[in-house]
## 1
Amino acid sequence: MSGVRAVGAVGVVTRGTTNPNRLRRMDRWIADRHAWQLRGAADPLVVDLGYGAAPWTAVELLGRLRRVRPDAEVIGIEIDPARVAAAQAYARDGLTFRHGGFEVPLPGGRRPVLIRAANVLRQYGEAEVAAVWDRLRARLAPGGLLVEGTCDEIGRRHVWVALGPDGPRTLTFATRLASLDRPSDLAERLPKALIHRNVPGEPVHAFLSAFDRTWAAAAPLSSLSARQRWTHAVRELRATGWPVLDGPTRWRQGEVTVTWSAVAPRE
């Protein structure tokens, strides 16, 4: 029952759509780019907020993070009590499930080093996003990370924001390159803070337009592979002045990360 307010928790019940491996791109990025935070955490606790009708994403997240930190712990939090009850069959050492919402209820006053909220804010209004971000960031351990974004049903296209205690830091686009005609196809998966800003005059529109141009210019490389074309297009995008982060190792995965300040909505 999407959009129904849940009793005793902050937020509304989502559609709950989920599939195995749907969040693999986000998971791999977290495990690579933010492994240092997990390794350095006194309490390696991670929250999968709004995991949906089935707990696949929480199960998979634990497996991927334990390659980085063997004692990592994941708590899946869902606003629908029936989903929490159904998930209990998947609980194991390091993986538990709790009822809750944006208040992020955790035992013993614990604070997670990471909160992942994927496909949770899609049904909210753009004006509501900042307050939710603030509320979730306030629940983090010092120096913690909030990752919030949206992907398609099978995880081929995904866009997410990474936020620290100081606010939004980066925006990452990740895709299965074989499914892509042009980079701006990813606009349909922009997080709620940006989905309505992909219009002329907004920075995210300018970024995607510039990316389309470097992608088109790299067309001759498509005879080698879509990966070669993407990597060249990202390199050229950075050469034109866009603050693109990381390097070819991440770009070859079908990723590109840009500083948030370059794509943030205009007031």
## 2
Amino acid sequence: MRLPARRLLPATAVAAVSALLTGCFAGAESATEGEAGGKRIRVAMMQPPRSGLSPLSDDAFKLSRWSTAETLVRLDEDGDAEPALATKWTQSGRSWTFTLREGVTFHDGTDLTAETVVRSLGEAADASPKPRILDGVDLTAKARGEHTVVVTTGTEDPLVPQRLSSPQLSILAAKAYTGKTVNPVGAGTGPFELTRVDGTSSATLDRYDGYWGGKAQAPGIDVRFVPDGTARAAALRSGEADIVEAVPVSQAALLDEDLITEVPMPRTNTLYLNTEKGAFKDASLRAAAREAIDAESIVKGVYEGRADVAEGLLGPALPWASELRAPVSRAKAGAPSGKTITIGTFTDRAELPEVAATLQQQLQKAGFKVRLDVREYANIESDALAGEFDAFILSRATVLDSGDPAAYLYSDFASDGSFNISQLANSGVDRALTKAGGTRSGEARRKAVIQAEAAVLATDAAVPMLHERVIQGDAASVVGAAHDPRERELVTADTHLK
């Protein structure tokens, strides 16, 4: 059910937003008509580049969302690898052999070859810091002829193709690597060529007519970086932007419902319970906390209905999870008897302190005494990882750059997991996590992942509450914009304005 708008912008705020937009989108209207017919697509992005659009940073996801930089492999909806710049691959122990697509050219006119792939992957493997997808992975690439690349890892890794789908391992032309930083301008292989970057304010892309996958329908993309959420929403409302990233919940209610799409994100808001010490060392009290939580009221009250009540750790962004999930047997709830607990969370995500306040009321009603400790994330992470809280509220990405949730589950719930806030040490959980991580990709791996999720849920070490959504705004004239839970696609070759 849609909740009514709770606030409207006062006249002074409207004036301020209009002034902001005038600066952000100045000249955009004159650039709307493309030289070869059709209209250019105007996009309002939330975060400006942090590393000059280097593909070795999180800026890589912008290059991917604009369809300018491509990878050897892409992922389908289930997270399985599909051909992209590579057409096929085979595994032999620690080595994977990739056959490259022929007839691909970079935006500077040079050809895609095994040597160019080796250069891009080598730059990523040698970077400091490494791209997240290669954290802890020893990867080397060698050319075998003009169109074959052999990728070898230090240990046998069933997820190499999925790793190579990460935008941080995009393949760029040799000229991108000639300076001190990686420069993606004019160096991609996608349907749109990045032609200009204006610092942290804008970027311009033009259609690349030599694209191997067929000419894009739109003549180009004009990007503006607009960190202010109110301004982004106003840009959609006023017609100054065609596609808008991350519309704030507070602004969504002020927009025509036909112009917004709520995209399920692979991100779960979870209450982690300390299984090592304190009240929640007792499994019956963990069960009592689980039963006391009313996630639906949190979704309605804090998220204004724009989230999904959790059924497990993995949400609707992974549609196969609910299909494979079975009921989990858990401990019976005990009596809290006035036990005092401290719940920690952080202010960096605005909704989390509200979630904490709601949980405090719910758990106190169940018989716990609850104290809250809310700080900035940088000042609380170390205490959370050290087990200083009885419980901790975290909004956590459940698939990392490989598109696979096994790494998240291991990190958060294995005895030696690097992000084990619950301090969980359970041999059964460890076995299930190890099995999931070592299973080949595909249906068998997905089943092993759900079995690992069930093993974690059975301990009540974590109580998943809700799965978040991101709200994307598309003008009525937009056709074919991508609504991607992994935030890898936005404007594709098929996206255009009618």
